[in-house]
Amino acid sequence: MDLNTKFTAKSWPDHPETATMEAKNKFVGFWLFLGGETILFATLFATYLALRNSVPSGNDFSTDTLFELPLVFVMTMLLLTSSLTSVYAMYHMKNYNFKAMQLWLAITGFLGLGFLGFEVYEFTHYIHLGFTYGNSAFSSAFYTLVGTHGLHVAIGLVWLSLLILRNARRGLNLYNATKYYTFSLYWHFIDVVWVFIFTVVYLMGVVG
Amino acid sequence: MTTAANTVAQKKGFGATLWDWLTTVDHKKIGILYLIGGGFFFVLGGIEALMIRLQLLVPNNDFVSAGFFNELITMHGTTMIFLAAMPLLFGFMNAIVPLQIGARDVAFPFINSLGFWMFFFGGLFLNLSWFIDAAPDAGWTSYASLSIASTGHGIDFYAIGLQIAGAGTLMAGINFLVTIINMRAPGMTYMRMPLFTWTTFVASALILFAFPPLTVGLFFLTFDRMFGGNFFHVDGGGNTIIWEHIFWIFGHPEVYILVLPSFGIFSEIFSIFSRKRLFGYSAMVFATVLIGFLGFMVWAHHMFTVGLGPTANAIFAVATMAIAVPTGVKIFNWLLTMWGGSIRITTPMLYALGFIPSFVMGGVTGVQQGAAPLDYQLHDSYFIVAHFHYVIVGGVVLAILAATHLYWPKMFGTMLSEKLGKVTFWFFFIGFHMTFFLQHFLGLMGMPRRVWTYNKDQGWDLFNAISSVGALLMAIGVIVLVINIIMTTAKNERVGNDPWEDGRTLEWAIPSPPPFYNFPQTPLVRGLDTFWIEKKEGNKRGYIAAEPISDIHMPNGSFIPFVMTLGLFIAGFGAMFRLEHSWGLPVLIGGLVLTFLAMATRSIKDDLGFYVTKDEIIRTEKEILRSERGSN
Amino acid sequence: MAHDIEIIEKTPAEYTYKKRNADRAMRGQLMMFALMIFMTLISFTAVQAGFSPLFVIPVILLLAAVQVGLQLYYFMHMKEEGHGLPSMFMYTGVLIGFLTVLAFVTIIWW
Question: Where are the transmembrane segments (chain C) (predicted)?
């Protein structure tokens, strides 16, 4: 594949993310990876549900007293919106509008960063209350589930910055189109996981 | 090198050769690396097995201490499953599957290499525990109640080593899946894929879904032991049963990850050496998929005695017994493949013939244990040991040995001695039954598994002694195989495309070993058993080309996978000794930074591969032809 | 050769057609986003309103499942063709994941 092939908006293929053999492989491989990630998170959710509110005697942390919904609501809105902005980025990718795509991706990144900031704040707040990682089985399961999601966000942000910076000068081609596309899949998947986290961990935690 | 296949590579010095192997992304070479790595760990696990049997040779033996015995059984199981059986099968998958589907390489050559190095470094990490601190001693299942209580760093080695090796396995699984999905030659529909490719496909899907739970479980164990987690600490509200569930949600599919490719290998062998199309091909495919699917529904049959309640036990018992149906379909199809065939008893065929009764015995005892009430009697006795060795040795190890003889010429271009091959088979086969058949009865007589020693005059003495002698016979079989390999390599008599003369699938249509681009022209597939169809129609070349000769795109070699894995390997030591040595944390961070830098290099540097020109292909093909004529 | 990319220039008519389709799809995505936000709001309100858990929990789980379906089918384009295989693997993953969760909430009880 020649990186120097120049495209125009009119010659850009309809599905640049699967236009080459390598791209097709990456596309399928990444979807399969997400299938595996589904099980990874399912196991974490299962463990959390089994150990939720399971604390040693004399320790009174529980989901309905600990969690604060307003914060979670703001985080949810940030992440949901970032999902939409990455859809916009892919819209522009398919239209061969590189600058608009980079811009929307940058917005996605900032929203993700905001989410991560709130998460760090939330965790430090809990630790301040004495709800540390080693506090109980409940705390370990909570931090591992939500923290693994947070780690995915952080990895996504690093990936995104590398993509944006690496390709800033050379624009779109069929080599990096798939990379952008798989990133957007990854980002949506993070959002999918978060939907279950805010429902199962926070909302169901508050309901009791 | 005088061989035709390596024509493009000129004679190289030692350093250049080493560099070539460290950076290779060629699936055939990675296959060989897997064989070397897996073979090394197989011998290691075998030595551990011999020490176990030596200890149990006579009652009240004190050849090894009780603690050391625990380390031996743990490392024997872990090594054999994760570091020997799986990598050896991966070796054959890597070497053969792309050829069977008419591909030039796997979908992700870079990740393929990364997967190998992660397996190898993970295995190395695990085995360094023998020299640093102590080896893990909580059994290969590492049940949390034992592993949390285990002192020393043994379990840490287990958790981190398997984490690294497991990640490599997951990558290899995704790679095989995408290869089989996307890289099939024109005309190679799903229902024309050879059975070994099909079983690789299903086994890889199982890897994709089974390894993430293991990853999670090992993280829990790591956090509990090293970072203050409370998942399994009952006094912190934890629950050790969670580990058992997670481990077996992974562990039961793992059995099928091992045994399905073995079924694939035997399907190829039965068909080749009966000179007949595999009987009931579609039923075989369906049975493979069904076994893979049911494999996820039965994990709790390892936990009947935990006390899940009668409802759960009943559900899992029924699901377990259901698996016997597709497995039975397979057994009958193999028998009917031989029926009326013109059978040649070669070494691989001998293994295949020995496999059927051995594996059926393992399957039948499996169904017995699937009956939950009976399992209360059999649980944790030597009956279980006998059962799973009949499945794993009688199924998987026989398949690996058979594949070694079957595919050796394709991978190395020279034939293993048939005479010595048969000697290996008889030693191994007789030794295997001697070792494990009597263990059924030892179990029924009440001998518990994982005991260090036993008192005399319980009726166990004779059977244990016979069992130990059998293990020695197996070892002799393996030693004969090693001698065979050395002699064959020294003689180096080159063979042609189809050394068994009855090859049916595409890999036998190209030189042994194939040139690095495999197929000068992508083949066109016209049916099941492509090569056989072309042979019967008198096509001398063995396959029809789907395209004119043109430039071939190939991936570049890379040293990055090695560095990436090295970083994780180093970080592993840092994580383990973080709390007791001041260098722990810096080493942990340093290792991770190394890995991250390698990853960043990979993502920033464009790697577009290179083209083999048309002229070069024509020249290489001519040279192969010339040398073949010369050697015959 | 699979690796050579044929560059096909679109005619103005084809190009306008593509653009119009893309714009229409984007409007659909926006609608889906509005729907997701709406469902999220319902979930949070239902919890804050203090209805019986027996009512709230099934509702919010259902809303989460629908929302995830929208993410997968619209934002991740799973409804488009060429996604048969990804769907198969995702569904298998969801099924096995569901079994895991089911087992952990039912038979880990002591």
Answer: 30-49, 55-76, 88-109
List the Cα angle B238/B240/B245 in 5-degree steps.
Answer: 120
Contact B182, A25 (CB under 8 A): yes
Q: In angstroms, rounded to a whole number, what is the distance separating the alpha carbons of residues B167 and B185?
A: 29
Q: Supply the pLDDT for residue A6.
A: 78
Put simply, whether A206 touches C (Cβ < 8 Å) is: yes
Q: Could you tell me which chain A residue has the CA closest to the CA of C109?
A: A50
Contacts for B291 with CB less than 8 Å, ≥ 6 apart: B202, B256, B260, B323, B326, B327
| Cα of A149 to nearest chain B Cα, Å | 13
Inter-chain residue contact B216 with A136, CB threshold 8 Å: no
Q: What is the C-alpha separation between B590 and B596, in angstroms, rounded?
A: 10
CA distance A68 to A62: 12
Residue of C nearest to B546 (CA): C1
CB distance B274 to B227 below 8 Å:
no
Q: Is the Cα dihedral B24, B25, B31, B37 positive or negative?
A: positive
Q: Are B90 and B39 in contact (CB under 8 A)?
A: no
d(CA B244, CA B147): 12
Task: Estimate to the nearest angstrom the gap between the alpha carbon of B199 and the chain centroid.
Answer: 13
B35: its two tokens: 């064989």
Chain A neighbours, 3+ Cβ pairs < 8 A: B, C
Q: How many CB atoms lie within 10 A of CB B582?
A: 8
Read off the tokens for C102.
């089911």
Distance CA A80, CA A107 (A): 13
Instruction: Compute the distance between CA of residue B216 and CA of residue B225 in angstroms, rounded to an integer.
Output: 14
Interval A69-109: pLDDT, tens: 999 999 999 999 999 999 999 999 999 999 999 999 999 99
Measured distance CA(B62)–CA(B437) in Å, rounded: 25
SS3 A170: coil
Nearest to B245 among C96, C108, C110 (CB): C108
Query: For an interface test with B, which of A21, A30, A47, A151 has the most B Cβ atoms less than 10 Å from its Cβ?
Result: A47
Inspect the interface and report whether the beta carbons of B227 and A133 lie closer than 8 Å.
Answer: yes
According to DSSP, residue B396 is labeled: I
Q: From CA A207, how far away is CA B257, in angstroms rounded? A: 42
Whole-prediction pTM: 0.95
Contact at CB, A39 and B220, closer than 8 angstroms: no
ipTM of the complex: 0.95
| CA B250 to the chain's CA centroid | 16
The pLDDT, as a whole number, for residue A1 is: 54
Chain C interface, best mutation among B105, B209, B234, B244, by max C CB count within 10 A:
B209
- pLDDT attached to residue C110: 65
Q: What is the DSSP letter of B8?
A: T
Q: Where are the beta strands (DSSP E) in B417-513?
A: none
pLDDT bin (cut points 50, 70, 90) of residue B540 is confident
Residue B516 phi/psi, 5-degree rounding, is: -65, -20
